[in-house]
Design goal:
This is DUF3800 domain-containing protein. By secondary structure, this protein is an alpha/beta fold. It contains 6 helices and 6 strands. It has one domain: Ribonuclease H-like superfamily/Ribonuclease H (Nucleotidyltransferase, domain 5). It has a 6-stranded mixed β-sheet with strand order 5-4-1-2-3-6, sandwiched between helices.
Length: 189
């Protein structure tokens, strides 16, 4: 039986290593409430949201195990050789590839973590340019969301953080997530 999925997207950067990671987690619409409940259950008292960079090692392990137990479908694009002056270009290349991956996997609804008005407009301009070139389906809906209002945006934050850490040499948490769950891994330079 087919279940529609929505993809939630976030990034992680490690400028000192020249690394840019864009992660998408596909969440079946019929399991979204379950995913949200698991994520809310990971919050500490008075913690408004999960944010990978704010968590300590012990919490990161618990969070990674909880995410792995959901068996999410992951799409990841890694930009290597990132220079601070080329950050926007690398993001555009990675986002173009990620949206193509998602469209190829029949994802028609994408929610990206909002950045700021200018950054979100750049992303929207790219989406519109891809549609104009027929490189993106016209029926793919892309929107920007607030992680304080949408718990499912915590998932790609966690995944991108884990992947960035693995690319920097510590793949202990990545081993929990990878395997059949990841549909494709691409290097954009």
């Amino acid at each position: 039986m087919y279940s529609e999925s929505r993809a939630y997207v976030d990034e992680s950067m490690r400028l000192e290593e020249g690394l840019y990671v864009l992660a998408a987690v596909a969440v079946p619409v019929d399991r979204a409430a379950e995913y949200r409940a698991v994520l809310r259950g990971l919050l500490l008292t008075k913690q408004p949201r999960l944010h990978w960079r704010d968590e300590d090692r012990k919490r990161r392990l618990a969070i990674a195990r909880a995410v792995a137990a959901l068996s999410p479908t992951l799409n990841i694009v890694i930009g290597a050789g990132l220079l601070p002056a080329k950050q926007r270009r690398v993001r555009r290349k990675c986002l173009e590839r990620l949206l193509w991956q998602l469209a190829s996997n029949d994802i028609r609804h994408v929610v990206m973590e909002r950045r700021n008005a200018a950054g979100d407009k750049e992303d929207l301009d790219l989406v519109n340019a891809l549609r104009a070139r027929q490189a993106l389906p016209h029926d793919m809906h892309v929107q920007w969301g607030d992680p304080l209002a949408e718990e499912l945006l915590w998932l790609p934050d966690v995944v991108a953080g884990i992947v960035a850490r693995a690319e920097a040499g510590d793949d202990s948490l990545w081993r929990l997530l990878r395997g059949e769950r990841m549909t494709e891994r691409v290097i954009c330079e």
